[in-house]
Amino acid sequence: MLALDDSAIARDGKILILAYDHGLEHGPTDFEGLEERMDPQTVFDVATHDAVTSIAVQKGIAEGYYPSYEDDVALVAKLNGTSNLWMGEPDSAVNCSVEYAADLGADAIGFTLYGGSNHEIEMAEEFRDAHEAAREYDLPSVMWSYPRGQGLKDDTSAGTIAYAARQALELGADVAKVKYPGSRDAMEHAVRAAGGPNGTSVIMSGGSKVSDEAFLQNVKAVIDAGGAGLAVGRNIWQRENPTELLDALEEVIFEEASVDAALS
Fold it and tell me: What is the pTM of this model?
């Protein structure tokens, strides 16, 4: 594993990735009611908040907007992704090479792996190529480790999430982005499965928008369980005032404050 303490995508080993790959993965529906967030510049502006350690976007967004923000935020270049128009077994097209990501100024690569999909073997082989190429540039790899497929009965069970974290470790990812498994104990299990303090750093996927308090309680459980932080999109930029929640997240993640203290 690459040490993240000195990495551009982390602060003191903690991570808050602002994810903005939703336009490809989900389409315009995620911007309903806040159409101004269709403009990537509005989210890049949010990413300049001190709590944000990097922004994750697809190649086209990075190429068009990142040059204006490269001094203010680190870049996780998402190498693969598939539209919500695709209705087949979970798969993810490789849309960007490591070499091109490096040319764009990326500080890390992001890659989705759907463990359990009928296409898992192909995606794992694609991740192998990306991971080994990224090592040539000293770029950390962040795996969106999302078990999903027709043979998988429960993609959010504690055992499945722990398996996702372990799969990221075994395949060499430096960071594993996993679904929140529902409790601190379950997250501790996932962190142990990822190799503990010297293994793959585990972060929580932000998921759909919920209340400030409910979201912060989950993030607090992740930090208390030994997780490194989170990658969050909709729970930030779908809010009319993202700064308020980012202020609170900075307290919870980097200062390890209580939720009540962060909200106050």
Answer: 0.96
